[in-house]
Amino acid sequence: MKKFLTFLIAAACWGAAGIAASAEDLRPAFLLTASPSRDTQDLSGQWTYSKDLYRTGLNDINGWVAKSRMQRYRDLDVAALEAQGGTDFFEFDLDRGPAMAVPGAWNAARPELRYYDGLVWFQRKFQSKPLNGGRAFLRFEAVNYRAYVYLNGKEIGRHEGGFTPFVLEVTDALREGGNRLSVGVDSSHDAQTIPTVITDWDLYGGITRPVRLVYTPATFIDDATLSLKPDGRIAGELRLQGPQAARQNVNVTIAGLATASAVTDAGGRAVFDIAAPAGLQRWSPDSPRLYDVRYAAAGDAVRDRIGFRTIAVKGRQILLNGKPIFLRGISLHEEEFGPNPARNMTEPAARALLHEIKHGLNANYVRLSHYPHSEVTLRLADEMGLLVWSEIPVYWSVDWDNPAVLRKALAMQAEAIYRDRSRASVVMWSVGNETPVSAPRTRFHSAMADNVRALDPTRLVSAALLVERRKVNGEDVTAIDDPLAGKLDVLAVNTYAGWYGSDTLDALPGLKWQVPPDRPLILSEFGADALAGYRNDGNKKFTEEYQTEYYRKTLAMADAMPTLAGMSPWILKDFQSPRREHPVFQNGWNRKGLLSETGVRKQAFGVLADYYRGKAAK
Ligand code: GCB
Fold first, then answer.
1. Global confidence as pTM
2. Which residue has the CA at smallest separation from atom 7 of ligand 1?
3. I want to staple 424 with a disulfide (CB 3.0 to 4.6 A). Which of 153, 213, 284, 307 is the partner?
4. Which residues form ligand 1's pocket by a CB distance below 6 Å?
5. CA torsion 415→158→167→262, rounded to 10°?
6. What is the pLDDT of residues 31-64, one digit of tens each?
């Protein structure tokens, strides 16, 4: 409660005086960042569900009934539910409801739910183990967009934001033996959500990522992280939670490299500062060396695999481990290959996508657009050696003047950063995508940029900006005219000359750019649609030939941009978008992929792969 009040005050002040909530206020109550190494119970599988079009689980006709039948059913203790033996009349009987696989998006699970946007109730029954004085938590990796969580008839928490994890303690609500978990998932978006109602991707609804029951001791390591500092030292912190959290010895072992110890303060926090270890092999895309790390404190221990590298900017260069690097990238949406994809990133699916990027395109970098991708993808990027741009869906436009919306953005960003700050692959946090310039919008993004720096001073801050076309001395130039630029380490722009607008492809190499001469610039997007297999019809838009020529000409333009430090063309693979309804070429798909939706390479794929091969050889 105190945290919440602090936030409300901070948010109110922000509106009036430009102050953002502090980083510490934004730390979620529980993180369990090392949960893959913990004693967990995976709750994946078939969950029963029922759609709730009139949202009766959340509201009912005011002043008529105190509780809807849905609410009465949901709020029953397991024992009471069993006792009434299925004879009571609830209308929302999830015991007998149809089932679908969790994790998964309902849009791809059932044809009749393809365009359903609203509230669905899910139920899963499970057995739990005795806690023996320990604690238990539910960790949801993502629910899109709002989640209302009930265990054994008791509300245990809510969450807003479709792409970041949340943890709810269930120690007291859990029943040794049978448990009934009910989750209301509301996929609807509005003017105050992030993103808002219209995007250029599919806002899949559902429990889209894994749910796990996590068992911990009474006092446990909630979060621990390490990173390499510019001077070669390794710094980090660990947070203990629980009755014995204060003044505990804490140990960290980096296998084959170093060990260190520290003591927690009154709040359960310990910091590490480890002298530059001899023999450290730095992580890079060419050599993605990960070290096994073990943290131990108060009888608890967790593991992680961490790579150590530095990232910085110097003049117009991006430096990885002190050396200039050109980011040979591609943008990626979170959709697996196949004709009916959903946002359900399994390890094989993520591996296949990243493999195509790294070994098919010869890339060293991926823009994970337009929201935090699955944890499995980030862990694989670490393991396979791909640098990552990460962003939250502050996309096109949100309610810039609304402190409550800013609060959501900062909280979402905090959840993403706490989740991924031990991933060497993540080098850049983006604070927005293509947001039209205005004073409230720039204030909003500036607060986000300050928030990122407070939460994670070790990485770069960027944003995908819009460009301006204008005449300078009678000459047509493309310029960055955005006051947000001053808040960023790396400038990034989306440019679609040659696709949208009237430029011919032949004009692209000669386009004049007016950009700061001493700062790194990346092309965060460029692209053109092509329907896979549509060829030999002249150089028309939507043919593979047009897309191929578009890539050749845009890459020639890029070669003439002296400050260019990287690119992530739009996009690896065709993806579903309700905005793309051209009846011949799109049919619900954005066709800017270099791969078709099923993974067939279009001609332009080879152009980019050759270009990157050449860049890598330099
Ligand atoms: C953009 C957006 C991206 C769209 C893309 C397009 O600038 O950032 O989300 O999908 O353009 O295809 O127009």
1. 0.95
2. 494
3. 307
4. 200, 370, 433-434, 494, 525, 570, 590, 592
5. 60
6. 999 988 999 999 999 999 999 999 999 887 766 6
